[in-house]
Amino acid sequence: ARRHRIAVIPGDGIGKETVPEGLRVLDAAARRFGFELDLAHYDWSCETYAQTGRMMPEDGLDRLRESDSIFLGAVGWPGVPDHVSLWGLLIPIRRVFDQYVNLRPCRLLPGARTPLADRTPAEIDFYVVRENTEGEYSSSGGRMFAGTEREFVTQDAVFTRVGVDRVLKYAFDLAMTRPRKKLTSATKSNGITFTMPYWDERFAEMAKRYPEVKTDQFHIDILCAHFVQHPDWFDVVVGSNLFGDILSDLGPAVAGSIGIAPSANINPEKKHPSMFEPVHGSAPDIAGKWICNPIGQIWSGAMMLEHLGEKDAADAILKAIEDLLAEGGPRTRDMGGNAGTVDVGKALAEAV
Amino acid sequence: ARRHRIAVIPGDGIGKETVPEGLRVLDAAARRFGFELDLAHYDWSCETYAQTGRMMPEDGLDRLRESDSIFLGAVGWPGVPDHVSLWGLLIPIRRVFDQYVNLRPCRLLPGARTPLADRTPAEIDFYVVRENTEGEYSSSGGRMFAGTEREFVTQDAVFTRVGVDRVLKYAFDLAMTRPRKKLTSATKSNGITFTMPYWDERFAEMAKRYPEVKTDQFHIDILCAHFVQHPDWFDVVVGSNLFGDILSDLGPAVAGSIGIAPSANINPEKKHPSMFEPVHGSAPDIAGKWICNPIGQIWSGAMMLEHLGEKDAADAILKAIEDLLAEGGPRTRDMGGNAGTVDVGKALAEAV
Ligand SMILES: CC(C)[C@H](C(=O)O)[C@@H](O)C(=O)O
Ligand SMILES: CC(C)[C@H](C(=O)O)[C@@H](O)C(=O)O
């Protein structure tokens, strides 16, 4: 049978509750579609940090390197600053494994509630492709004249040809697989006049290689407005690290799916493991109550299976989620029901 | 009588249609409230650029310097690149006159249509305060290894203590004038780890001076999501140049007012003239047809009068806009009517 090695990191807060349900559904899919999952469990989290002073052991990345994919819950907990928790676990995984594509579907699922008036599922169905290793998230910068009136801080946004071209290529390739074949680029070249015109230049260059793809571009300010006013305009949207971050929260918000949206951190060449995690965080306010919604985790599992070549299994999970929402299956509180985390996981595992 | 010197720059496209209506209403307000407006007209635009190679004459800024305020239509036209049109007129005015606050109200007006379901006017009524001179819109950066595989481009975001503190102070002062006294800061200190933690640090420092103001902060990604999901949470929102730019398009989009939203570029100390302009652009697709909506321009005029100390006149204009929308007065096409630009201007001038 086909075997896939999965590193499992529940992380913090509700990650500990959603990951078991994600695994439950993955396991059901493995049995039905005839593949095997080798799981390696890692309890790295803010608790690990409290005990050891590190979010993961020194050889943490080496251990992960042996897996085909990483299945992550959530990272972060009150009391541990983000630069420790995120920059000690999430960000190094993205960077060291060169997961240069962050892919997030934005879909209005049947039966889900969008804050927008009068929108149907067919009208909100697009992907955000985010650059995930460079751009505005840079480690170059600093502070001068600290503590005086002249104090200033800088941070360099860095856009490399290699970094920009490869994520654009991924986005064009993805657009080619979609019926509408449309790609929108997020820019701000009218205000940010070095890096963004460069992004536009590379986008125009790459577009020449894909004559079948219909392209357009908007400045990020009006693009955000269009997400709210015209979500039906979009098919695939590509943006820098920061712009992609913004759009991939706004898109799910518009689709009413921010609590259940999945995300994939992909190394498309499969030289390194890719990582799959829900968009939501560790949710300290509801953690420990087993009332959180596991759908984001389970949907992330479907994206993982698709990446591993198990397309039929991925489709089956997605269909189970759609059916559950459309047919009034068990729902957690955030979706107006009163089911527990485990109820939803079990219902989906059974459906698969 | 009180006299105010106004420099008038219609600029490009529909700016030439909205500015006359803005002036019509300002004139009505002046007569009713007993002040005088000295107008100086400047036809600087992309046409000027075509004729002279410059967006404005060399002594353009000096001429503007003599006015109390600048009343601007729109800048930009197809065929003239943004770095010429915007950086030859709009951006230098903002910077040279140290208009370090960009203030934009986000209000759901009675009778206006929001894309959100079930929102009432009382629920969407907040201000975005945007830093307008530094931050991500920087002139520091460049390109290296051009034309090779090693090519990269950088742009430094620059946050100075002076620049950050003064816009934060403005935002806290504004929050103090509002019944809810609430201020939200836009950050991204979990990803942009030099400049954004500095912004947070200065925000926390300034907050100590305003114990009555309730503060919170969100990362820009989830903040954009909250604008869509919970616009009622916000009272005053402060952000950097880029974040403020994004939020002040998203806010009006959520309120259904992007076609009519005003903006003020303010030098709070009144050492230099401030500038008032609608959020919309020059709209080449409908320019020349006299069907565009002048409300953004007229509302910008109201903000200008408030800045000039004519609060009663400003309130009268705003009330006229509210009444026109609520009572089904003449509407342009974008609001579902078939009135012309001039019809709306005349109706508002009469109401004032
Ligand atoms: C035209 C552009 C440079 C400008 C900006 O980003 O400042 C515009 O979007 C605005 O918000 O006034
Ligand atoms: C937690 C944070 C650093 C992260 C990011 O901005 O990349 C998150 O918002 C995300 O989108 O995965």
TrEMBL record, chains A, B:
Pathway: Carbohydrate acid metabolism; tartrate degradation; 2-hydroxy-3-oxosuccinate from meso-tartrate: step 1/1; Carbohydrate acid metabolism; tartrate degradation; 2-hydroxy-3-oxosuccinate from L-tartrate: step 1/1; Carbohydrate acid metabolism; tartrate degradation; D-glycerate from L-tartrate: step 1/1. Its cofactor is K(+); Mn(2+); Mg(2+). One of its GO terms (molecular function) is D-malate dehydrogenase (decarboxylating) (NAD+) activity. It catalyses: (2R,3R)-tartrate + NAD(+) = 2-hydroxy-3-oxosuccinate + NADH + H(+); (2R,3S)-tartrate + NAD(+) = 2-hydroxy-3-oxosuccinate + NADH + H(+); (2R,3R)-tartrate + H(+) = (R)-glycerate + CO2; tartrate + NAD(+) = 2-hydroxy-3-oxosuccinate + NADH + H(+). The keyword Transmembrane helix does not apply. Belongs to the isocitrate and isopropylmalate dehydrogenases family. This is D-malate dehydrogenase [decarboxylating].
